[in-house]
Write a structure and sequence with these properties.
Elements lengths: L8 H12 L4 E6 L2 E5 H11 L4 E4 L5 E8 L3 H10 L4 E6 L12 E7 L18 E6 L4 E7 L4 E7 L1 H11 L3 E5 L3 H8 L5 E4 L6 H12 L13 H16 L12 E2 L7 E2 L1 H6 L13 H5 L5 H12 L5 H16 L1 H11 L5 H10 L4 H22 L4 H9 L4 H10 L20 H11 L1 H16 L5 E5 L3 E7 L11 E5 L3 E5 L1 H32 L3 H27 L5 E3 L4 E6 L17 E5 L6 E5 L6 H17 L7 E5 L3 E6 L11 H13 L6 E6 L7 H17 L6 E5 L8 H4 L3 E11 L2 E10 L7 H7 L4 H17 L29 H11 L8 H16 L2
Parallel strand pairs: 1-5, 7-10, 9-12, 10-11, 13-23, 18-22, 21-25, 21-26, 23-24, 24-25
Antiparallel strand pairs: 1-2, 2-4, 3-4, 5-6, 7-8, 8-9, 14-15, 15-17, 16-17, 19-20, 19-22, 26-27
Helix pairs in contact: 6-7, 10-20, 11-20, 12-14, 12-20, 13-20, 14-15, 14-16, 15-20, 17-19, 25-26, 26-28, 27-28
Length: 870
């Protein structure tokens, strides 16, 4: 840690600026370097790997120092932001040459993880959302802004709903009221990068004033969000934050949209994670997005990700998408033409946002022109299509011909990356610029012409023109030719063997050529800025283009996926029946070894006969894959994509719930079982008649008896629910649940078949009617490499248990089952025998999750002693 900094004029200026942003690393521009001091320097040197030095700072004091060249900002800034740092950029606000006093400096931008337009920080396939959350007693408001694209969204609802949105949008930074920190962490945990704002910012008056000022409207009714008071407050807080971070040029934020919960299938965070829609739970795995993403443009990639976590419920909208996918699927020429045009477009959305904030480069402006030129034939093709959706896309595309032609006319096709490098503006646009360029480029030849002309005029063959810093350009003549000097030359310097002269022509030329480079850059910058200013008028039109191109890109991507993977068009309808023939898991089938075919399966779920399917079968047989593939096929269909099956009829779902696998939250002090029960409770409290529920191995986090009891009660609850016949797939290793088919008419037993040959298990992975009798757990243990002695001993104990511990079955309810499921008696074993009771207690108290093979062997030995009495 540095000692107190002595307040020299420069350090006094630094401290004053640093005090305004104590929580940010301050990059302090000093000449050609960005410097960091004190604690900032220590942090910067560690993150950036730059040298940390100490500079004397008064008697017996020092200050830590770390810096890098100003032109390396784009290299170092992303590293600081990715490390979770807020970075304040302090620039010199005046030319050091133009002042003899301390250079004026100030913050020009505060870059944070949630507020950035720097290409090196952004991922082109992901949005970079900043979020704000506002709490009231029962309802939360939330807003999301991606400043790099201009997307601005808001919603309000229960903390659970807001948690779902935060997980789906995955903001890089979340804002909330300073006094609500504890409440925020209780509701949403500590996984987000957060920043606390003053409470007064989260008030309705402050928020509405800021929003109305930005949108220049009298109210928010035109955006359809005026009634979302909490959402409006969160949205206003985001705009206040942009003020605080010096992001003032935000003309590209043209609307505030409501996230309409009713339009989309509800997918909670457990489902998005369990189905591995956009990320994987295992390193090296592939998500569904990885498989279906064949998008060409960055806008399309970002939109496809959004479509995947917000599937549609509206059948017309779903079929509109399916119609376009089918159109592309059947017409490869159109598909190929569009793919070719899309490859020319680039990130139109982020380029036009850079226009708004004044950060667009000449190369990006040329890319904008190329994109607009590529849109013209796309518009024409869509307009001529017999597909209604494509015609509508064509109508909304605008090639913006006037501005595209102006860019073509004014900007070179291969300009520099930055305007200050020169050479961006075409020849013939500005006469003064052309003249200055001629002077700059032809300077040497012009001087040679003057030298030759003056030599011929005076008859001095050795005459030469040179330059020095004292008096600029001059003519040098040897003393032997002194008598030939013209009267209009002015003597400036006498040497031993020669004299130097200047002329008015040389002085005029000197003035021109010395200022030419500076004037060229100044003129080019002015002309370029005028062009960018004109481009700003086209922001709404180009944003609409970006949106429509992204739609086309997503639909083309789905057509390509369908073609490559042999998907078919699903039928999405109003029924409550899901019927999939020969369905396949879209991810697993792509990861099989070459030549190995995926074993497809049929699944039928309805509200009359097949509401709940209980699937038994050994571990590794494919129960989990079957559950997931059913959900993924339904989800893909409602996204508007073709699906991996021979045929699929999907009565649309409004909610997809999963309780798949153990998801320990040990770090939060929650056991596997507690997490399991929390997730199950969330499902049961929110089911509807159109819900699709997937339970995989529910109850394995507790003892066998507890697990069977809870699983039975949950299945029964779903079956007997008064208002909702939620379609359910329930994979379990509790074969006792097969008994339920006898008592409940809409429960059906299926098993994933296996074949036992020579005491070995062959997994057939085929779903067949009926329950499974064995779990083959010991076979799996053998396959996993368990020591032979344990496998043999486990077989002996299994036979003993099967012989001695006969189950009596599930007792029928003693009275009509009420909504509270009273009267259910579960009795699996006759436990009158004290020996059996003791064995039960021994097994019940075993902590299976932490049991080593040696512990298991010792425990088996203890049980043996109980049985044999030795």
């Amino acid at each position: 840690m540095a000692k107190d900094i002595v307040e020299t004029p420069l350090m006094k200026q630094y401290i004053e600026i640093k005090t305004k942003h104590p929580d940010a690393i301050l990059l302090f521009r000093v000449g050609d370097f960005y410097e960091t001091f004190s604690d900032d320097a220590v942090a910067a040197s560690e993150i950036l790997g730059i040298t940390l030095t100490r500079r004397a700072n008064g008697a017996a004091q020092y200050v830590e120092l770390a810096g890098f060249p100003h032109h390396a900002l784009d290299t170092y800034l992303p590293k600081l932001v990715r490390a979770g740092k807020r970075v304040a950029i302090c620039e010199q606000l005046e030319d050091p040459k133009a002042t003899k006093k301390l250079v004026k400096r100030g913050i020009t931008e505060l870059v944070t993880p949630g507020v950035s337009i720097n290409d090196n920080i952004l991922n082109h396939k992901e949005n970079n959302f900043l979020a704000a959350v506002h709490f009231t007693k029962n309802v939360c408001g939330v807003a999301f802004l991606d400043i790099s694209t201009g997307e601005f969204l808001t919603a309000e609802g229960t903390p659970d709903y807001i948690d779902k949105l935060l997980n789906n949008f995955a903001p890089k930074e979340v804002l909330f009221e300073r006094s609500r920190k504890k409440q925020f962490e209780e509701a949403f945990g500590t996984r987000f990068f957060t920043f606390e704002l003053e409470d007064w910012i989260f008030t309705e008056d402050a928020a509405r004033d800021r929003l109305l000022k930005h949108f220049e409207t009298k109210n928010l009714k035109g955006f359809g969000v005026h009634h979302l008071v909490n959402g409006v407050i969160a949205s206003g807080a985001i705009l206040h934050y942009l003020d605080l971070t010096h992001h003032l040029q935000i003309k590209h934020i043209t609307a505030l949209s409501r996230i309409e919960e009713d339009r989309y299938v509800r997918l909670d965070k457990f489902t998005v994670r369990s189905l591995e829609l956009v990320g994987t739970m295992n390193e090296g795995g592939k998500s569904l997005l990885n498989i279906i993403d064949h998008t060409i443009s960055p806008m399309g990639a970002r939109m496809l990700k959004r479509w995947l976590i917000f599937p549609l419920k509206d059948i017309k909208q779903i079929n509109d998408r399916l119609n376009v996918v089918e159109y592309f699927f059947k017409d490869p020429e159109v598909k190929e033409f569009l793919e070719q045009q899309l490859s020319l477009i680039g990130d139109l959305e982020r380029i036009i946002s850079k226009v708004a904030v004044g950060r667009v480069s000449p190369r990006e402006v040329v890319q904008l022109k190329v994109a607009l030129q590529a849109i013209a034939p796309i518009k024409e093709m869509c307009g001529a299509s017999d597909n209604e959706s494509l015609r509508m896309i064509g109508e909304q595309l605008n090639p913006c011909a006037l501005i595209a032609e102006r860019i073509e006319r004014e900007v070179n096709n291969d300009p520099p990356a930055q305007i200050n490098r020169g050479g961006a503006i075409r020849h013939g646009i500005n006469a003064e610029l052309d003249e200055l360029r001629d002077i700059s480029h032809m300077g040497k030849s012009y001087l040679l012409q003057v030298q030759q002309r003056e030599s011929e005029r005076t008859g001095i063959p050795s005459l030469k023109i040179s330059f020095n810093n004292v008096f600029g350009y001059y003519i040098e003549v040897r003393n032997t030719h002194k008598d030939k000097i013209p009267e209009d030359w002015i003597r400036k310097q006498t040497l031993v063997n020669a004299e130097r002269y200047i002329t008015q022509e040389l002085k005029d030329y000197e003035e021109k050529i010395l200022g030419a480079e500076e004037k060229i850059l100044s003129l080019e910058t002015r002309l370029f800025n005028e062009l960018v200013l004109s481009l700003a008028d086209y922001i709404p039109a180009i944003q609409m283009n970006a949106n429509q191109i992204a739609r086309l890109d997503c639909l083309l991507s789905m057509a390509k996926t369908a073609q490559e993977n042999k998907y078919i068009r699903p039928e999405v309808n109003e029924t409550e029946v899901i019927e999939i023939r020969q369905g396949r898991h879209p991810v697993i089938e792509k990861q099989l070894p070459p030549g190995e075919a995926y074993v497809a399966n049929d699944v039928k779920l309805d509200s009359d006969k097949n509401q709940i399917i209980i699937i038994t079968g050994p571990n590794m047989a494919g129960k989990s894959a079957l559950l997931r593939q059913t959900a993924l096929i339904v989800l893909l269909a409602q996204v508007g994509s073709f699906v991996p099956a021979e045929s699929a009829k999907i009565g649309y779902t409004d909610k997809i719930f999963t309780r798949v696998g153990a998801s320990d939250n040990i770090s939060l002090g929650e056991s596997t079982f507690m997490v399991e029960m929390n997730e199950a409770a969330d499902i049961l409290n929110n089911i509807s008649s159109r819900s699709l529920i997937l339970f995989d191995e529910l109850g394995r986090g507790t003892s066998t008896y507890d697990g069977i009891s809870i699983a039975w009660a949950i299945v029964e609850y779903i079956h007997e629910h008064a208002k909702a016949c939620a379609k359910t797939l329930f994979a379990t290793h509790y074969h006792e649940l097969n008994e339920m088919e006898r008592s409940f008419k809409r429960i059906k037993n299926f098993n994933v078949s296996v074949k036992e040959v020579d005491n070995k298990v062959i997994f057939l992975r085929k779903l067949v009617p009926g329950g499974s009798e064995h779990s083959f757990g010991i076979h799996v243990a053998k396959m996993a490499g368990m020591p032979q002695s344990i496998v043999k001993r486990a077989n002996d104990i299994l036979k003993q248990l099967e012989t001695d511990n006969r189950k009596n079955g599930i007792a029928k309810p003693t009275k009509e089952i009420s909504s509270h499921r009273e009267g259910m008696q579960l009795s699996f074993f006759q436990l009158d025998d004290p020996v059996l009771s003791q064995i039960r207690d021994e097994i019940k108290n075993v902590d299976i999750n932490n049991l080593t093979p040696m512990d298991a062997l010792n425990k088996l030995n203890e049980i043996k002693k109980i049985i044999t009495g030795r």
